[in-house]
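Session log. Operator J.P. requested a structure for one protein chain; no other inputs attached. Running the standard single-chain path with C-alpha cell output.
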Amino acid sequence: MSRTPERSPEPVREHPAVAKVAAALTAAGLTASVEGIRFLPQAARTAVQAADALGIGVGAIANSLVFRMTTADGGAEPLLVLTSGAHRADTAILATLTGASRVGRADPDFVRAHTGQVIGGVAPVGHPARITTLVDDALRAYDTVWAAAGHPNTVFPTTFDGLVALTGGRAATVSTVATDATDSRTGRSAPR
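Structure written below.
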C-alpha cells in the first residue's frame, strides 16, 4: 500500500511564480523585499483585500494591472501599470502615454502568457520577459508599498523608487494614469 506524501504546511512558499519573484528581487539587490515576502492565510485578489490583510491603507498597495496594448501595426503587447490601490487606471490616457492605438483589459490567458502569473497575484517582476511598465506617482507618498509576489496569497514590501528601478518603469503622475479612487464603502477595486 502506498502512502500519500505529506503536504507542505505552506505550499505557496514553493510556488514557481513566487520563486521567480524572489529571484528577481535578489538579483536587483532588494534583500529586504525578499525577506519581507508575506504569505497571507487567504488570497488577496484586490487592493482592498491585500490592505485589509496587512492592516494598512489601500493607497499603499501597488496594484499590478496588465493591459493589452494594440500597437500601430495591429499587434498586441502587454502593458503593466502599477497603480496605487486607491486609484483606477484610465485606458485612454494609458494609450496616449504609451503611443498605443488602443489599451484595453487583458483576459486571464493573455496575463498568464506574458507574466507567468494569475490575475490577483501578478507581481511587478518575475515575468518571462520585461514588460513596458508605468508606475503611479501616488505610490511615492508611502515609505513602504506592498506588491503581489506572484501568487494571490503573497505580497512583498518595497518603495516607490524600488518599484521604478526594479521594473524599468516610467513614473507617471496620478492625473495621467488614474482618474478615480477605489470606493472605500464598497471595496470595489481592480484586481491586483
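Operator note: The chain has a mean pLDDT of 84.
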